[in-house]
């Protein structure tokens, strides 16, 4: 059977963001800025650089501002054109034309697995990438593209993996892995939020996966798991036991925008490399460090 190219991506962005309250009370955490762009724009740009053509963003009540960000703002654009601010205008237009972006609402916040199941009719019978809406990964070679290439090579689901600490793994997932070559692994089992005695390895799924459409039937039969939510990891475990999955220890730096420290790290590191403010920010940081 010919392996289909990955053309579609789903970005779940309907979580409650309780770890970053109160900022996420009225403002989606996916819209938190990293210097001058909201987190979700970095994620959409990563998907586009990975060859993705169609993107579905899963939102919910109170997240309409995400839709607005990828739409035109006619009055603003007219004002920028009239005042000759062509460069800013081009930047805004580029956001509007990044990709074909669609939206659907997850009507109840029942977990990441449930959010992904809302993408069923958008995905149809194609493989698709999932980019978690609060995980920004910055790197030369887009992480999503690295996973898509592994899908196209091995023809089975792929998870983005990274080694984490024992302290972190109990809050994430843990995978049973075997190295195939370089940063590519074969995954034979996984567990979500394991108690310390159930940890399979320190490799965890972080932020990205590529799934075959067969995951939707599995999700339909997935009961609520850890935290009473329908967990995507539980569905991927069934997929793993049925046909195996591939793990890619992707290159690139991941920032957890669902976590206060992650937001600060992203802001600081992106600011240091920013063409407009990078050098002034570096001078400021040097001065500040002397006072610590
Ligand atoms: P998280 O578990 O990190 O998001 O889900 P959360 O539930 O918002 O986090 P806390 O624990 O309350 O702070 C990872 C991604 O999945 C989305 C989130 O928006 C986030 O981008 N998600 C999560 C959904 O779309 N729907 C859900 O029901 C749960």
Large-scale geometry: globular
Shape-level CATH architecture: Alpha-Beta Complex
Largest sheet: spatial strand order: 5-4-1-6-11-8-12-10-9
Structural class determined from secondary elements: alpha/beta
CATH topology: Spore Coat Polysaccharide Biosynthesis Protein SpsA, Chain A
What is the β-strand count? 13
> Considering the protein shown, what is the CATH homologous superfamily?
Spore Coat Polysaccharide Biosynthesis Protein SpsA, Chain A
Number of domains: 1
Description:
It is a single chain. The chain has 292 residues and is α/β, with parallel strands linked by helices. The longest helix is centred in the C-terminal third of the chain and has 13 residues, at 260-272. A hairpin with a 2-residue loop joins strand 9 (173-181) and strand 10. The strands form three sheets. The protein has a nine-stranded mixed beta sheet with strand order 5-4-1-6-11-8-12-10-9. It has a two-stranded antiparallel sheet with strand order 2-3. The chain has twelve helices and 13 strands. The protein starts with 7 loop residues before the first strand and ends with a helix. The radius of gyration is 20 Å and the shape is globular. It has helices at residues 39-49, 64-69, 74-82, 86-96, 112-117, 120-123, 143-154, 166-169, 215-220, 232-243, 260-272, 278-290, and strands spanning 8-12, 33-34, 37-38, 54-59, 100-105, 128-131, 135-138, 158-163, 173-181, 184-192, 203-211, 245-248, 253-256. The protein has a single domain (8-289), classed as Spore Coat Polysaccharide Biosynthesis Protein SpsA, Chain A, CATH 3.90.550.10. 37% of the residues lie in helices and 24% in strands. The structure holds uridine 5'-triphosphate. Uridine 5'-triphosphate (UTP) binds next to helix 5.
């Amino acid at each position: 059977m010919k392996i289909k190219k990955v053309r579609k991506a789903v970005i779940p962005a309907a979580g409650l963001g309780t770890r970053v309250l109160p900022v996420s009370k009225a403002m989606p955490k996916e819209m938190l800025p990293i210097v001058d762009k909201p987190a979700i724009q970095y994620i959409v740009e990563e998907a586009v650089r990975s060859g993705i053509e169609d993107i579905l963003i899963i939102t919910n009540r109170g997240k309409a501002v995400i839709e607005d960000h990828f739409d035109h703002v006619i009055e603003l654009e007219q004002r920028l054109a009239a005042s000759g601010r062509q460069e800013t205008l081009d930047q805004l237009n580029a956001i509007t034309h990044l990709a074909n972006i669609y939206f659907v609402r997850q009507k109840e916040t029942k977990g990441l697995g449930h959010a992904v199941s809302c993408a069923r009719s958008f995905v149809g019978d194609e493989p698709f990438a999932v980019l978690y809406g609060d995980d920004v990964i910055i790197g030369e070679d887009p992480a999503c593209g690295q996973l898509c290439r592994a899908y196209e090579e091995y023809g089975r689901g792929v998870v983005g993996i990274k080694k984490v600490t024992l302290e972190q793994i109990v809050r994430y997932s843990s995978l049973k892995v075997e190295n195939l070559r370089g940063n590519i692994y074969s995954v034979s089992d996984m567990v979500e939020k394991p108690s310390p005695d159930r940890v399979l390895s320190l490799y965890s799924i972080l932020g990205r996966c590529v799934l075959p459409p067969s995951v939707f039937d599995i999700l339909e039969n997935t009961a609520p798991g850890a935290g009473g939510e329908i967990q995507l990891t539980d569905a991927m475990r069934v997929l793993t036991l049925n046909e195996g999955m591939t793990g890619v220890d992707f290159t690139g730096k991941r920032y957890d925008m669902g976590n206060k420290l992650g937001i600060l790290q992203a802001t600081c590191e992106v600011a240091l490399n920013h063409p407009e403010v990078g050098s002034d920010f570096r001078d400021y940081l040097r001065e500040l460090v002397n006072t610590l």
